[in-house]
Every structure is written in structure tokens, then in C-alpha cells.
Write a structure and sequence with these properties.
233 residues, alpha+beta, Beta Polymerase, domain 2, 5-stranded mixed beta sheet, 8 helices, 57% helix, flat, binds guanosine-5'-triphosphate, binds adenosine-5'-triphosphate, GTP binding, GTP-binding, RelA_SpoT, NT_sf, ATP-binding
Length: 233
């Protein structure tokens, strides 16, 4: 086994384990609450070519070892996609509460959007991997974003590959405005959701009142004529 393969093996293991754990979190949310905050989860080990580019950018020697591991905390990367912006906070809080990983850094690129237009919530965690040589703590990056933020970031990422980060001014502006359009979509969807939830609350309260009124005749009050016209035929 080559030295890079040996160096990257625990990262691969961490990505596999974390994918299972975060998907487990998704399944648990889905059984316990009406609206599950996690839509889907992905993960990857940073490609070697990308590790190389990043090491040049950060001025770190391109050598497998501690210095590289500390300077590039996203060699193991997970991504959690949510339907609504509010879901992100729920997911972040669940990750903070976990006992099998330790959050070492958080970056909120949602309230502090990046100049490119990029939005996401980032967490760097320390995660213990069990190896045949004992326990090894490694860093992993978890990006949490909405589907709309992900749509924008995926397209911008592929265009970035073509332009190598050096976008013509016109394209830069259009990407920034596309990012704002994606965020408006998120805000509109959140508003629609809030209104639907409010309507649902109103109807369940109204039905509750109905039930109270239907019960009332047995208690000597109310008017079931209004609420049970069909039964009374
Ligand atoms: N598509 C896209 N992804 C981004 C952008 N900015 C950050 N990201 C993603 O977020 C990850 C981490 O970005 P940052 O938190 O800025 O970290 P960094 O690139 O190491 O930058 P520094 O720590 O500031 O040197 C990147 O590896 C990308 O996956 C962006 O403008 N567009
Ligand atoms: N935390 C993550 N979880 C899941 N996938 C990711 C994560 N970070 C990046 N990716 C994806 O992995 C692929 C390759 O990653 P790469 O490391 O080259 O991207 P990057 O992290 O966005 O780049 P950069 O090194 O410039 O910061 C891309 O499709 C990217 O979108």
C-alpha cells in the first residue's frame, strides 16, 4: 500500500461511518417528527489532485502527515441537504449534542454570505476512528445547506473548474445575482411553509373546538345540529 493510500484510509473510514450516522439521524427524525429536517446526505474523500491544489494554495508541503491534516480539515467531507433554511439550525444543534464527535469550528456562511454568493453552514468536527493501531482522531467537514443553496453551489463549482476561480466580471455578477435568486426561493418556500403550518394549526384548533362542541350535548350543552347535520339526516 502506498503512503497516500495509508494516509487516506482513516478518512475513507470516517466518511463511510459518518454517512451511516448522519443517514441514521435522518431516519430517526423522519419517524419522530412530522417534517424531517434532512433531505439527503453525501460524502467524499477529497481527491488527491484537489489536496495537491489546496496544499499549494495554503503553502503546506504536499506530504501525507500531520501538517497537511491540520491545514486541510476537509479531507473527509460530508454534506447535509435540507428543504428549508430553518432546518439547518435543527441539524446544527443535533450535531452539537452528539457524543461521538466534537465540534471544533463553525462557519456561518448563511448570515455572512461569501463574496461569490456562496451560502452554507460549515462545521469542522473531530472524529475518532478506530484503526488496527488504536484510535485516531481526524478532522472532518460537514456542510449543511438547503437544496437551493446546493443547486447554486454545484453549478458554480463546475463553472469554477472551467475558469479556475477566475471568472469574467460579467459571469461573477450573474452568479451573485443567481445566488440571491436562489435565496429568495428559500425565503419564499419558508414563508409558504409557515403559512401552511399556521393554517394546519388553525384547522386542528378549530376541529378541537368542534369536538368540544359535539361533546357538549352529552354534557347538556352545545348544538350538534350545526356540527353533525348529515348524521341527523
Ligand atoms: N461552490 C462553492 N463552494 C464554496 C465556496 N466557498 C467555499 N466553498 C466550499 O466550502 C469549502 C470550505 O470553504 P472555506 O470555509 O472558505 O475554507 P477554505 O476554502 O479552506 O478557505 P480558508 O480557510 O478561508 O482559507 C470549500 O472547500 C468548498 O467546498 C464558493 O464560493 N463556491
Ligand atoms: N464537505 C463535503 N461533503 C460532500 N462533498 C463535498 C464536500 N466538499 C466538497 N465536496 C464535493 O467533492 C467534490 C470534489 O471536492 P473538492 O475538494 O475538489 O472541492 P472543494 O472542497 O469545493 O474545493 P476546494 O479544494 O477548492 O476547497 C466536489 O464535487 C465538491 O462539491
Amino acid at each position: 500500500m502506498g503512503q497516500w493510500e495509508r494516509f487516506l484510509e482513516p478518512y475513507k473510514q470516517a466518511v463511510d461511518e459518518l454517512k451511516i450516522k448522519l443517514k441514521g439521524m435522518r431516519a430517526q427524525f423522519a419517524t419522530e417528527i412530522e417534517h424531517a429536517p434532512i433531505e439527503f446526505v453525501t460524502g467524499r474523500v477529497k481527491p488527491l489532485a484537489s489536496i495537491y491544489d489546496k496544499s499549494l494554495e495554503k503553502g503546506v508541503p504536499f506530504e501525507p502527515g500531520e501538517e497537511l491534516a491540520n491545514e486541510l480539515p476537509d479531507i473527509a467531507g460530508l454534506r447535509i441537504m435540507c428543504q428549508f433554511v430553518d432546518d439547518i439550525g435543527t441539524v446544527v444543534e443535533s450535531i452539537r449534542q452528539r457524543k461521538d464527535m466534537r465540534v471544533v469550528e463553525e462557519r456561518d456562511y448563511i448570515s455572512k454570505v461569501k463574496p461569490s454568493g456562496y451560502r452554507s453552514y460549515h462545521m469542522i468536527i473531530e472524529y475518532p476512528v478506530q484503526t488496527i493501531h488504536g484510535e485516531r482522531a481526524i478532522f472532518a467537514e460537514i456542510q449543511i445547506r438547503t437544496l437551493a443553496m446546493n443547486f447554486w453551489a454545484s453549478i458554480e463549482h463546475s463553472l469554477n473548474y472551467k475558469y479556475k476561480g477566475d471568472f469574467p466580471e460579467e459571469i461573477k455578477k450573474r452568479l451573485q445575482s443567481a445566488a440571491e435568486a436562489a435565496f429568495s426561493l428559500d425565503e419564499e418556500m419558508s414563508q409558504i411553509r409557515d403559512e401552511i403550518q399556521e393554517a394546519q394549526r388553525f384547522f386542528s384548533e378549530y376541529r378541537g373546538e368542534q369536538r368540544d362542541d359535539v361533546r357538549k350535548p352529552e354534557e347538556g350543552g352545545g348544538n350538534d345540529e350545526v356540527f353533525n347535520p348529515v348524521e341527523r339526516g
